[in-house]
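Q: Please design a sequence for this.
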């Protein structure tokens, strides 16, 4: 376990504060948590030569858990015979594994991969017919095309290091289309703001649209954002820091600018951008990115999203070749190569608790013994309110879960995916038809849209996200046709009534006409697929159809996500852990919640390797140095 730094005479208090962050040791609330246990920002696998178990490496006897001085592991798992076959017990099929993971979204799969590669037997249970959660690529019958239903920008799983850790590209077939054209923001007046990998090219292009002075203001914000984002990256790489610890880390990394970062994180994206920029079109683009988490840009805490957008320069954007399912396929291959098992059509009904410990999971009429841990990748409210016996949930946790909120902002998502006769002309520089299009128009429009949504009304000028997957892969549509990916925000609860088929058609037609107006071209759909709030719930089961499990509001971020006593991937029940978008650092296709949770599970099981803490701390120091360099450049 990492040791706390105790103050000594002459110590620099700022250095001590940073040390406390690097040696972060999360505490859990009162009886909810028992004794404090150590967090972990790396992972200790059963790997050699950088992680992969090389052929010929001797496996340990899994009939007994690893033990060492200080290990908390006390259970023995009965032998089950051939791996993955299960066993019969009183006429009921009982599958046994070291770890059972609930949910095969990308975070659940990433967590399972880390654990399986560490030498644990892992079974993943998925309620749906296929893995992926919010990530879904649909093949239309008879070769009529392919549609991208869910999240499509997957650069986060590369930036987080998860793709490299799990060798998804080098070993398991994942390939990315990299592009330098990051984002295009077309506006109703015919102008378009182009954001390139190169900050210089971005500023040059913005100068022609918003003027040299405003473009230079964006440059200064982007250079400062790069330094600020380096600090945020450190906070994503392990159990979440408290606001006090984040402030200390920012103070050490950024010096006098540290307080500015903390203030910006607490600010709304609307206020933050208004204090830096004048042009409403430019401000709206940053606000739209901040609102991507289904939070109004006027909400406190959304300033982080605007900072992250401005920090994107310097790295290309990435989409998986063949569609988002390629990421899921690579994760499944990684899991199975490490000996793990995935079982679909296995909705979990119950997590069995005995003696205050999670010992088994019941799904689709079968019982799966978990000899060492259960990891839930579904949201905490569903887990404790529907799956765990009420008598096993501490009263204090029940009260805390009542304060966890989702859907209160009434924000949800509408997707329109279609094969169209041809690719429309996209305004702006050549090549940006390959980029992600954000079209909020102006800051007045996007802020007004969320006010309309709060009242249950589909906004007249809602913000649009548009992509054309067929510009990067030739096989998305036959006969010279194209594929469009169109998303907009809509109310979770309509004031006019339920989300029936007629309401879905009306909202989709409105979004389609708005997209045609923005692009300046008529689009003729050949085949169309609509996904509204009810369809999202059917797909992934998240409350209020929210892909982030719980709202990404300021009171549910960092050490408050999803709640204070559940924020470090542990729960009050021994052997039961949390991962997924409802845990730190939140939504997006990064795999970071899965990696972080796996690290905590392995630390709890006494599997953490000696060098892992040193490596993780060196990584944090490297990021801090990077932030300092960026700050000097911004100055």
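A: Design:
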């Amino acid at each position: 376990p990492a040791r706390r730094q105790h103050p000594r005479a002459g110590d620099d208090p700022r250095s001590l504060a940073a040390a406390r962050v690097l040696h972060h040791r999360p505490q859990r609330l009162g009886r909810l948590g028992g004794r404090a246990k150590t967090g972990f920002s790396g992972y200790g696998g059963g790997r050699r030569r950088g992680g992969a178990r090389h052929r010929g490496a001797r496996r340990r006897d899994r009939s007994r858990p690893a033990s060492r001085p200080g290990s908390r592991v006390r259970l023995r798992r009965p032998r089950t015979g051939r791996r993955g076959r299960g066993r019969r017990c009183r006429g009921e099929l009982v599958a046994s594994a070291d770890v059972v993971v609930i949910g095969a979204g990308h975070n659940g799969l990433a967590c399972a991969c880390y654990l399986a590669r560490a030498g644990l037997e892992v079974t993943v249970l998925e309620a749906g017919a296929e893995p992926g959660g919010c990530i879904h690529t649909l093949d239309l019958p008879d070769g009529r095309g392919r549609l991208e239903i869910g999240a499509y920008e997957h650069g986060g799983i590369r930036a987080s290091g998860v793709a490299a850790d799990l060798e998804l590209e080098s070993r398991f077939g994942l390939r990315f289309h990299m592009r330098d054209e990051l984002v295009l923001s077309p506006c109703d007046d015919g102008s378009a703001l182009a954001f390139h990998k190169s900050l210089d090219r971005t500023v040059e292009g913005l100068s022609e649209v918003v003027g040299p002075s405003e473009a230079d203001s964006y440059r200064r914000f982007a250079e400062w954002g790069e330094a600020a984002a380096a600090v945020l990256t450190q906070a994503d790489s392990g159990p979440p820091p408290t606001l006090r610890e984040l402030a200390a880390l920012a103070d050490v990394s950024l010096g006098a600018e540290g307080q500015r970062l903390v203030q910006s994180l607490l600010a709304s994206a609307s206020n933050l951008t208004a204090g830096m920029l004048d042009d409403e079109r430019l401000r709206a683009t940053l606000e739209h990115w901040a609102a991507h988490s289904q939070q109004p840009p006027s909400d406190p805490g959304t300033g982080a999203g605007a900072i992250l957008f401005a920090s994107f320069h310097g790295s290309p954007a990435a989409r998986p070749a063949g569609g988002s399912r390629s990421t899921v396929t690579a994760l499944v291959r990684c899991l199975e190569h490490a000996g793990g098992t995935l079982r679909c059509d296995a909705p979990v009904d119950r997590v069995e608790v005995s003696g205050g410990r999670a010992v088994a999971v019941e799904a689709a009429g079968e019982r799966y013994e978990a000899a060492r841990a259960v990891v839930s990748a579904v949201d905490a409210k569903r887990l404790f309110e529907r799956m765990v016996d009420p008598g096993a949930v501490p009263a204090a946790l029940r009260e805390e879960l009542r304060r966890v909120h989702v859907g209160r902002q009434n924000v949800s998502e509408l997707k329109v995916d279609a094969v169209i006769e041809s690719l429309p002309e996209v305004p702006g520089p050549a090549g940006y038809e390959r980029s992600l299009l954000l079209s909020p128009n102006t800051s007045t429009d996007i802020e007004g849209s969320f006010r309309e949504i709060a009242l249950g009304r589909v906004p007249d000028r809602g913000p649009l996200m548009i992509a054309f997957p067929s510009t990067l892969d030739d096989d998305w549509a036959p006969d010279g046709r194209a594929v469009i990916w169109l998303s907009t925000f809509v109310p979770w609860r309509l004031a006019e009534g339920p989300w029936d088929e007629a309401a879905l058609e009306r909202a989709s037609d409105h979004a389609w006409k708005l997209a045609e107006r923005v692009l300046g071209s008529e689009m003729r759909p050949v085949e169309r697929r609509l996904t509204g709030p009810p369809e999202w719930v059917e797909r992934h089961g998240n409350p209020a159809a929210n892909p982030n499990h719980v709202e990404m509001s300021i009171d549910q971020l960092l050490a408050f996500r999803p709640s204070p006593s559940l924020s470090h991937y542990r729960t009050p029940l021994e052997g039961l852990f949390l991962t997924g978008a409802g845990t730190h650092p939140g939504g997006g296709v990064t795999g970071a919640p899965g990696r972080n949770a796996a690290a905590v599970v392995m630390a709890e099981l006494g599997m953490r390797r000696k060098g892992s803490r040193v490596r993780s701390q060196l990584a944090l120091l490297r990021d801090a140095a990077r932030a300092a360099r960026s700050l000097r450049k911004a100055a």
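Q: Thanks. Anything notable?
A: The first strand starts at residue 87 and ends at 89. Residues 180-197+407-545 form a domain with the Polyamine Oxidase; Chain A, domain 2 fold (CATH 3.90.660).
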